[in-house]
Amino acid sequence: MNTAVRMVNITKTFPGTVASDRVNLEVKKGEIHGLLGENGAGKTVLMNVLYGLYKPDQGQIFINDKEIRMDSSATAIKNGIGMVHQHFMLVPSLTVAENIVLGREPRKNMLLLDMEKIVKDIKETSREYGLEIDPKELVKNLPVGLQQRVEILKALYRGAQILILDEPTSVLTPQEVDSLFKAMKALREQGKSVIFITHKLKEVCAVCDRITVLKKGKVVGTVDANNTNPLELAAMMVGREISSTCKKENYQPGKCVLKVEKLQALNDRKLSALNDITFEVHESEILGIAGVEGNGQTELVEVLTGLRQTTSGKIILDGRSITNSSPHDRISMGISNVPEDRQKRGLILDFSVLENLILGYEDKPPFETGWFRLNLRKAASFSDELIQEYSIKTPSKETPARHLSGGTQQRVVLAREFSRKPKLIIASQPTRGLDIGATEYVHRKLAEMRDQGVAVLLISADLDEILALSDLIAILYEGKIVAIRECGKTNELELGLLMTGGNNE
Amino acid sequence: MNEKARSSETRRLMLTLRGTIPQIIAVLLAFLIGAIILLATGHSPIDAYVAVLKGAFGDVYGIGQTLTQATPIIFTALAFIFAFKCGLFNIGAEGQLLIGGFTAALAGIYFGDLPIYIHLPFALLVGATGGALWGFIPGILKAKLGAHEVITSMMLSYVALYITSYMVNYPFIAPPGWVAQTVPVAPSAELPRILSSTQLSASILIAIGMAAILTLVFNRTVLGYEVRAVGLNTAAAESNGINVKNTMIIAFIISGALAGLGGAGEILGVHRRFISGFSPGYGFDGLAVGLIGGLNPIGTIFAAILIGALRAGGMTMNTVTGVPIDIVSVLQGLVVLFVAAPKLITYLSKKGVALPRALKPLSNGVQTILSKIKRTSRKGGS
Q1: A241 falls in which pLDDT band (50, 70, 90)?
Q2: Which residues contact B178 (CB under 8 A, 6 or more apart)?
């Protein structure tokens, strides 16, 4: 038969939630099957069940029409399933080849590693699937897109016939996405099955043969990619109408809140990352920093929040220099920060929702009450308010943040940062990895804050996001602001050119 | 208090209780293996264990010995836990305890004309300060230079050992100078004994008080919150305005102070003078006891009493049954092994020994520790 995977009636519950609710999924041989759904719809859980990482409460899994008990990922690998996780599992200090063969190294004369054969094999495989890579390069020197290739090659090397890609595009640049899609199609030509987890409509339409839409742990339906369109899929996914752009009120900026003058800074490798950055952000204004990632965005945010030293230049908040202030002082002075990586910098995953909601305020009234005592009752009532106001979907305020979905985690961050009555909000990739509903929510909140008079600095690699929200757009390219445009007086074409270093003067 | 708040209190209590089950199981497993070893070496495990129990809890003297043995270990375990919550490994409690004991002895020997209600607290405070100072060194080396605290705190233990040894062999040796010890502390600096005809001193009350205070510190204070934040996610703590370096230094100071206070309690309560080599390795026992106690201050008290009982009862067992006292070290090692062997316990629980659920939190806890060890060693390596 030509069915590669059949999952029947899969149910998986976690305390408080049903992550998979009697899910049926069928993936054919030689097809790219999209698994579409909002954050928390149960896509990753379902695939973790298939990959043997979670044991389902009930249901059966058939691989090539044979029932398999997936009790571990080893079983899954043995049955030809490979999974590329959102977060890569590579050894940075080993070479590409070493990473790929890790755990099943070919040997010669029993003992010696047959590196020549490995390198040759990898070169062949990578050419076959259009996944070109230098097998001798160290993984830590590779950009994210190539690291992902290593993961894919690793799965193929282990004999994967069914490849699960968990939100593979969320970390890639548009060019990298294109080459990933090419590789996926090459895999399909070879008769392999690809399960593509995503929440991006354009992508599923671009590359998938069939699409299964999940919502709240249930299958909404499986559709043929030829017989559907993004609008229909979106409706299946969220079950409601979406407004794709926020309505922009007339733009009336107030006085200058943040002034950055000729800022320079180095990156981790001690190379120049920021070069004479100068801009201003005013009250009731969203300044969007557009640019392809890796052009100094991370460094800019770190310099503005006090995590990275400047080598020269000035940062002025409300007329006072904060160039050398600590992160603590900047928070006290009214800077809120929505970090790029919420799990690394925004939240403490093993802290409860309550504890996360007071992070950064814990030493300030009303939570600190003399003798360094933490007023838990105040913190509890504060959390209750925020959970209500920001509709944070959590079983309780004592639940560790780790157990929440990505969108809910971001709501916790927003609730904390926005309720501080900030003067300035620095929001960095605020909707990365979020589904449409959560993205829309974040956008609405940012716009609300702007309307209340807050100055907002939005750093995003997503041009649609920049266009939807910003009043002014600054383009960051190779550590420099190459242009600042008013939102109504530019277009995607011009911005795209500026972002890629094209000159249209 | 409304209904909901009360039920959440109850739930928390239940969770705490359930959290202790794995530790208890680890202890039982250790005794089981210990019994096999005893059988294999031709001893009756029942006789041996009964003798241990009798020796440890059979009479007032036994109980006194058990608790006396437990007391310094409670302090060093609390010291280990405090640093650990901040993501730091203070392996140097031994040195902090020695320095604390020595400085407390000096404070107790001099200032003899102070009244007891000033002299005793002062001597204890000096001991805690001595330990704190010894903890401060690896703390600041870590924060300012990135020196790995495992190495520095461990090595400083040896420095402390030899400094104190030198001090009591030369400048402060009690006349006529045959034994490496100081003169006795003034009576006004003696920590009272609280159980007649035993060496048990009020130090154990201070230890229990400290455990209670630490519980409060972790859950109810800004410092405790920030220490835990740094321990769980340094990057997020930093981004949200917590001064990571200062917090680490403070955690090490408090950790050292706890160990130093333990040393002071030993000197002022049990020995009443500083004797070279008075600690048989309390600092290292603290690490084991901290783990057995589930990294929980209150759990630490029980874990320390267990080890104290094995030590105290071991003597009786040796004299009554002839079983070598070393079996006690074997048992202690086995308990630590089971607490620290998540894979084994997961396997046993999979095999359907009626404890699958109970063992889960244990193995999770250990996995957290292991991943933390990995993380810190990686940080140190780069």
Answers
A1: very low
A2: none
